[in-house]
Structure formats: C-alpha cells, structure tokens
Amino acid sequence: MALRSDWLPALAAFEAAARHQNFAHAAEELHLTASAISHHVRRLEARLGTPLFLRHARGVALTAPGRQLADAAGSALADVESTLRGLRAGRDGEPPVRIAALHSWTCSWLLPRLPSFSAAHPDIAVSIETGFALARFDDGGPDLGIRHGGGEWPGLAAQLLFHEEMFPVASPSLPGVDALRTPEDIARAPLIGDAARQGWPDWFRHAGVRATTVRERFRFSDSNAGLIAASLGLGVALARERIVAPFLADGRLRRLPGPALRGRFSYYLIHPTHRRLRPPAQAFADWLLAQPRE
What is the per-residue pLDDT for 262? Predict the structure, then answer.
C-alpha cells in the first residue's frame, strides 16, 4: 500500500497522541484542537480497518496494532526531523557530529566523560542518537556509531574500544543481600535480566552452578534500566563492567561474590567505509579512541 501525502497529517497527529497518550496534549503540541486530533486518528483507523486506541473515561491507551504503528511512525518522523536539523545546520555552518550509540553505554560511560571532549573541542556540536536498532549509515545517516558485537559488519570499519566482563551486583538495601555468599545463593535470589545476548544462564554455567532454572523477577530491554532497578533493591542484576561503574562508584550497587564472565562481545567504534570522516567526526573518533581502556 503506497503512502500517499494525505496520510501524513493523520500520521503526525497519531504519533503525537500515541507519545502523549492524550489527545489534548497532542493538540497543544501541534497547535490543533483535540477534536482535530480525534478526527485524524479515526480517519486513520477507518483506513486501516483496526482500532489504534482504546478509549476510556481517563484517556486513551494504545492497542497492539497501535503500538506497532506508533513505534514505526515515531522512528520515521524522528529520522525526518534529524535530517532537517542537519540540513539547517549545513546551511548555517558545520553540521553536528552525529553518533548512534546504545542508550546504556551513552548514559553510564560516555556522558561522564563528555565534558573533557567539550573542553578540548568547544566549537564542535555533537548529536547523540540512542536506541537498539542498527543505524543506517547511508548519506543521511550518522557519522559514527558504537556497537556491541563481534567486530565485523559489512561496509563498516570497526575499531575496538574495549572488551567487557560481567558479574552480579545488588543494592546494599536488597533484603537478605548479606546472605548472598555463593553463586548458588544468587540463583535463589530475585534476578533482573535484560535483552542482551549473553546473560544469567551463561554466568551460572561459568560459576559452576548446574541444573538450575533461571527465573527472572524483572526483565528490561535496556541494561541501564536493569541496573536502576537493582539499585532500588528489586533484585540482583548481571552487570557489564563498563556500564555499572558509576553505580559502584557512588555505592548504589555493590559487587556480589562469584567469578567474572568474559563477554563474548565487545564495544566497537564504527563508521561507513564508503565515505571519509569529516574533520569534526574524526576529532571525536580520535578523542574516543584515546580514552583510557581500563
């Protein structure tokens, strides 16, 4: 089904309503009325033949098809907005260095170090895009990316940033944390998992715990969210050393007994091989690669 131009206003209205979960707030953002937002959404639902929202007295909630469309529409509109910003910046001066990176790595590793880059390069603007999807490095895509993987991606140059190790952590406030003295004890504790390709089953095998069924009390798509949950005393998380460092440093989490598991994957700085890095992007890459690897 071709996307005609008359779909765009309805998709924009729907995306704002989905993001706010509120027609009135979406209307305020788009300078429309709530009835106009409702009209756009109902028109979209009629065309698709499926409800996108569940209406109730307190507001609206996305249906499963609505969530699917909201994710796609939000991503597409964000890409357009980012491209427009780049075009405006190109007209007015050097566009920002665009970096695509994992949210957890950005929050826990990059942000604490970013002031040093800003001090060394005060004239370079940086745009950091976080998420889980693999960035498209076409002509309108980011300059650089940080990926967690094996180090080989077709069409991309990859430079190793650092390896990682994984070990269990918990909040000092977790009930019974002082009794967690062995990996077997940890297997009986409430566990927190994430969407990484290496997790609790791998660690328990490495720790020599056999015939145990891993039951995660909580599971998150983002490693940083899992660590925050652990810091609130909700359970034991399997931490990645690069991501957990700020939590250990300020005492929100502490390392539990048990071996460290060497990760199968590492962090890499990547960029497309089909185009040369702009000088500002090269400056950021050089700075990143010069950071201590400890």
Answer: 94
Residue 242 belongs to what domain range?
Answer: 165-262
Same domain, 175 and 256: yes
Q: Is residue 211 part of a domain?
A: yes
| pLDDT > 90 in the chain, percent | 56
Of 151, 109, 150, 121, which Cα lies nearest the Cα of 293? 109
Dihedral sign (CA 285, 287, 288, 294): positive
Could you tell me if residue 294 is inside a domain? no
Burial class from Cβ neighbours inside 10 Å (0-12, 13-18, 19+) for residue 176 reads exposed
What CATH number is given to the structural domain containing 205? Answer: 3.40.190.10
State pLDDT tens for residues 106-120.
Answer: 999 999 999 999 999
Across 75-89, 184-198, 263-277, least confident range: 75-89
Q: Are residues 274 and 138 in the same domain?
A: yes
pTM comes to 0.64
Angle between helices 111-120 and 279-289 (to 10 degrees): 130
Tokens of 101: 């990176």
- Based on the fold, state whether residues 159 and 271 are members of the same structural domain: yes
Average pLDDT, the chain: 87
Q: Quick one: how many helices (H) and strands (E) in the chain?
A: 11, 13
> Are the C-beta atoms of 166 and 241 separated by less than 8 Å?
yes
pLDDT digits (tens, 9 = 90+) for 166-213: 999 999 999 999 999 999 999 999 999 988 888 999 999 999 998 678
How many domains are there within the chain?
Answer: 3
Residue 177 shares a structural domain with residue 241:
yes
